[in-house]
């Protein structure tokens, strides 16, 4: 423990008195001069010979860095890593990146100014300064102005505390105090390090467990789970909305499946007026041929003459579509039979779409013409 | 005491006369549209500098600023530019049928313009212009003539009256600048609208007036006048220029970004013209000159109080305001950014004439408002 | 009003007004202001905090209810998808701006009178931003996933959309909160150092020591501090403009008629300052009366703030006028319809309420009698607070409830939960204000000490 006083501090009653004292004491070169005041005094920096603060330059540099960082990460994220066009705006829309760039610039600049000033330049927080424990501090933060002569680091041995004290008193100081800087015992010994490491590991383990269980458990707690288990209708689910408690209900009477509008003709004669909407193209006829072969040929025969492969086993007599009766049928009547069935023939509406049915009608017509061809049909120009 | 400078500004007069000659010929040779575009450009420039200077004066009265009292005479003298601007504006009314589609009879058949064709027509336009000029001149007499009188009478009641008048001036100013902006500039493309436009012209005009004021002060200090005006005063001016550079940039960017974002056809065409066909170079130059250069040139404390730095920045700012108005007005001609002998002639005439007027005005009254009760306090201002 | 033709004798309204009343020394300042955190607060404080806590707890309960049940318990529905949530958000952010203006912008303009009220104003900013921040975090619907808003590498391989003004808001509000907190804390450091050296209680001394970071008042530290403070004030000034402009971009970048107006950025900033100053006036009147601080928060302070309110009201009037004039000038039928809805229709009453409270009633402040009377200034300030809340209601609800497609037009009705959370946010704000007044110095004693007469040396360096 060093016994030599290395700070001599005296109090003054006004800012003017302090400034006068500085002018008196500084030329004597007794040590490093420092002033302690309750608020910033104009002109004291020059009087003490303090250099200008570099905070401005630091803030400028970090602000620019913030601007570049902001533009950089927005550009990379929006235009390079996962470029998407949103709202018609190209991935590299610099106009849209300006607001965030501005905010991040201010953020970087602010933290540089605040924390840089505190940590870097003023080396605060520091609770070991002897003046904090002195009698003078109560006056300093209230309404007194203090001037201190401090031993510099180089010439600590040559510091003349008595001369400093005399100089301060001569300049008009009251309550002159001599303070010593306590010797600091080394903080980082092995026991401390072991304890610190142990504490850190324990903290990591505990927080790790907490994080793990939080991530596993949290999403299944309500209300987070509300989206996982939603009160909506699914297959086989019950529902209190309907009287019978079933979620699955029959469609309302009169519901029509898409693509399956009702025919609008109750009897075959009513259907006679229906017109074939499809044109007689090769494509339509090939669809008709395919469907006829699949569905109709087993009974009606591949030539639509009523002799199909099932006839013998079946016992019923399928219509011979080549007969005059059926050649006189209008398209609509054939269509009606496909949809509703006739006699022993069942309805084929479920198996054939509307277009397919009309294609089949075209094909039947083609078969009829082919089997009852006239000379004019073979027209060699 | 001040005296007019010893030698007569013969070079300036000659340049102005040459400009006048060129202007006269340009009507015939370059066509009425180009002639009137130049005329409107210079009218708006001189008007914004003048009314902006009057705004500076009124602002100082409004907040009872003390630091600015020693330099207040300078913007007062600059504001007298309103006097020559008045006939320039009235002559400029002849441009309305030439350059303003809203004033032509075809507007009545245009779906977008028919509803406001009456507002845009020449009689209403002229009435608004006359109203704006009357209000501006009224404010000029109230604020500036009273200040000159106070030099002799030393009557502190003028300061009271000026302080009472300044809030009313602010309200009048808002409408004056808005009307000029919408009538003379936005009216060139009457289908377009942007309600921030009045604020935009205010920002540019205020900056131009601040720059002109700074320039004049440094000029006077160079002539060993205004010797008691210190770096502390210059620092405050520099801070204003810095802050309002940021403000102008913010307004300009906000208008652009909002129109870019929504991409609506009625609004975006105005920018489309200015981003293609040669104008995009002017747009980028404007951003550099009106924002980047002054922002970085004035960011440090020392720069804001350094007379040489301020001189250069003030010149750049005035150039930037000219470029801004050029960028606002000239695209209406449908050509790229043109600059040839008509533009040069107009520049010689109006810039020369303006400088001659200002030169004369700088000899009116005392260099500082010596009748103002707060002059002493203003001179003692320290940072 | 006296008038005088004699040189040197100033008329009454030109005479300089002292910033403090009576004799104030640094010591008496400390004794007056720093005594509050040291002693037990009066009964009125406990009653007040009881009331505000009740509102706060009701708000919290309803907030939890909203998170549990979902946003359906609010009135938001098609097409009014933004309602009380965003109205409250914009309202509270706006109120925060007055604090930053007083502490930062007025500092930049060297308006010394700001020193006495800056601390309280900054605290109000922080509390207002806290109240504001709750709403965007809550209105996302699944607030526990709000962290998705931040750009961090994730297994969805997605980044947030930087082209959206809603994301700009996230950055702007976070930055504003951080910067305000930093600015406030740095201003507090010397004051807490004063409290550290006054207090007799050991545990309080320990806390103050830590919080004041070992501040000594060294001149070498002051020079860094002052420079940093000046820079922070300049940066905060930029924030005042930018944060509320970014909030206005939420609306102005859209194509909703009535929202896409280029004047929104400065109009919102002016409105924010307007609403904020009104709230500051209300709070300061209460503070100076209950804490006997009339010698520091003087009549002059209140009158100047009322003048600012009047000026802002005129700017708002200009903005409303420009909106209406542009609606006509644009000849755009949708814009005209949106504007007509403000003054007529289902919500026309809200439009008229807004215009009366924001433009007409504050005109009373042209009269000095109203600027200096408690009754009138509180009346005007409350009117402004209500008017500014309704202005956001007008902007959001009226424009949304009838935009381009008539088949989507609907009437919006708020629910009790909406109101409860709104009043809860007021409860939060005032609870925090009351706690602040109890725990920390409400006036920046260090700053006021620096502007007292005789505080600065007469001789000593003048910078050239």
Q: What do these coordinates show?
A:
The complex is a heterotrimer of chains A (381), B (383) and C (464). Chain A is of the alpha+beta class. Chain A has 13 helices and 4 strands. In chain A, helix 3 packs antiparallel against helix 4. The model of chain A has no long low-confidence stretch (mean pLDDT 88). With 383 residues, chain B is mainly alpha-helical. Chain B is built from 17 helices and no strands. The two termini of chain B are 28 Å apart. Chain C is mostly helical. Chain C has a single domain, classed as Formate dehydrogenase/DMSO reductase domain (Formate dehydrogenase/DMSO reductase fold, Up-down Bundle), CATH 1.20.1630. Helix content of chain C is 66%, strand content 0%. Chains in contact: A-B, A-C, B-C. At the A-B interface, helix 4 of A face helix 11 of B.
Task: Furnish the topology, listing elements before pairings.
The complex is a heterotrimer of chains A (381), B (383) and C (464).
Chain A: E1 7-12, H1 15-25, E2 32-36, H2 44-48, H3 55-81, H4 94-121, H5 136-140, E3 145-150, H6 161-171, E4 174-179, H7 190-217, H8 268-271, H9 282-300, H10 311-314, H11 324-327, H12 331-340, H13 354-371
Antiparallel strand pairs in A: 1-3, 1-4, 2-3
Helix pairs in contact in A: 3-4, 9-13, 12-13
Chain B: H1 10-29, H2 32-62, H3 73-79, H4 82-92, H5 96-99, H6 111-114, H7 117-120, H8 122-153, H9 157-185, H10 197-222, H11 231-262, H12 265-274, H13 279-297, H14 301-305, H15 307-329, H16 341-361, H17 375-379
Chain C: H1 26-33, H2 43-69, H3 84-108, H4 115-138, H5 165-198, H6 202-211, H7 219-252, H8 264-290, H9 299-329, H10 333-343, H11 348-360, H12 368-371, H13 374-401, H14 416-439, H15 445-451
